[in-house]
Design goal:
Blueprint lengths: L1 H19 L1 H13 L11 H11 L5 H5 L4 H7 L9 E5 L14 E5 L7 E3 L7 H13 L2 H5 L11 E4 L16 E7 L2 E9 L6 E7 L15 E3 L10 H12 L5 E8 L2 E8 L12 H10 L4
Parallel strand pairs: 7-8
Antiparallel strand pairs: 1-4, 2-3, 2-4, 5-6, 5-9, 6-7, 9-10
Helix pairs in contact: 1-2, 2-3, 3-9
Amino acid sequence: MWKTIKHTIRDAYFYILGRVAPKRYADLLFFRTFKRHINWEDPQDINEKINWLKFNGDTSMWPLLADKYRVREYVAERGLAHLLVPLYGHWDKVEDIDWESLPNQFVMKTNNGSGDALICKDKSTLDIKYWKRHFAKQLKLKFGYAHAEPHYNKIKPCIIVEELLDATKQPIQSSSIADYKVWSFNGKPAYIWVCYNRTHHSTDVGVYDTNWTFHPEYSISTPHYQLSNILIPKPEKLSEMLQAAAILSEGWPEVRVDFYVVDGKLYFGEMTMTAASGNNYFYTPEFNLMLGKLCELH
């Protein structure tokens, strides 16, 4: 019980700190992860540079890019609307969701959260009352305070429903949809971080370069992010994926652009300006520095 109380007090303190002093909180999170402070004056690795950009860069467009609903506008404006996952609807309030109009299978999520999605494979078995409560809570959360990412608090929260992509029709065997997360720097894709077999407790991962060479030496296996010992097949849509990442990342010092490949088609996932909130602990220090060198701040 005392442990639970301590965690509650700690979480409340961090939330308040994230609200009143986000830069200080970002440094605290960084220190807890890497046992050193952020070099604000001369950031070097990708984690330091992500944090530097949060508080010193031009983040005026970040709320749109991080918004899982409005980013669709950006993707379409860049000529890539054909990569968007079909959208069934969006609602500002839980009470407005038209459950009857939804198909038997779908994905429901908030536009400003992480890891809160409902993956519905059979609507007839759905506990709608539970999910109404779940998403009502999610809409009230201030995600930006929790992880020192102020731009998330500028997103108008809503609920979106998209088509459920068929995980059985992927180029790799995975219990979940595989994410191809393309690290890109001002229009230049550099590395792809693949995440698959995703659960709440673990995810299989691996880093590949743009020639699809596997680089296990760039990853640190953790209890959650487990380095895969299986060579993932080169996706047939790799060239199209890299081209799309180049288009979407043009003009941004760094961004991670996520894609899916299902049934022979490439889909856009999301854009992440602050990957792991600037605490990518599952990469080696050497790889974090390599990514940092690719990110030009000026």
